[in-house]
Design brief:
- The structure is a single chain.
- With 105 residues, the chain is mainly β.
- The chain has strands spanning 2-7, 10-15, 19-23, 33-36, 39-43, 49-51, 60-80, 85-104.
- The strands form two sheets. It has a four-stranded antiparallel sheet, with no helix packed on it. It has a four-stranded antiparallel sheet with strand order 3-8-7-4, with no helix packed on it.
- A hairpin with a 4-residue loop joins strand 7 and strand 8 (85-104).
């Protein structure tokens, strides 16, 4: 059983007992529970597929925040040829790891 969820503008595939890296959730601490109800698609164990228009009303996903962290560094390099302009920047994006506990219909 899995579900496709709209999470902060991204579509993520969520399965029970799987850990997923999602965009940073600053207001939640590790151990807190999270309930997602923007489910776009659900495929159950009997290969039945439910597609929302745009979301499914009676499907919810319960997840637990496991950890917060930072991704690998991303280098942003800008250059204009023959102008003497070069700029190198980088940043590390924050993320939150969640554990999907249950998918309820």
């Amino acid at each position: 059983m899995y579900a496709i969820v709209d999470f902060k503008g991204q579509q993520l595939r969520m399965e029970k007992d799987k850990t997923i890296k999602v965009p940073f959730l600053a207001d939640l601490e590790p151990g807190n529970e999270l309930e997602l109800d923007d489910v776009l698609l659900l495929k159950d164990d009997k290969d039945n597929v439910l597609v929302g228009q745009p979301t499914l009303d009676n499907v919810k996903i319960v997840a637990e925040v496991v950890d917060h962290g930072k991704d690998k560094k991303i280098i942003v390099f800008k250059k204009k040829r023959r102008k003497g302009y070069a700029k190198k920047q980088g940043h590390r994006q924050n993320f939150t790891t969640i554990l999907v506990k249950d998918i309820t219909q």
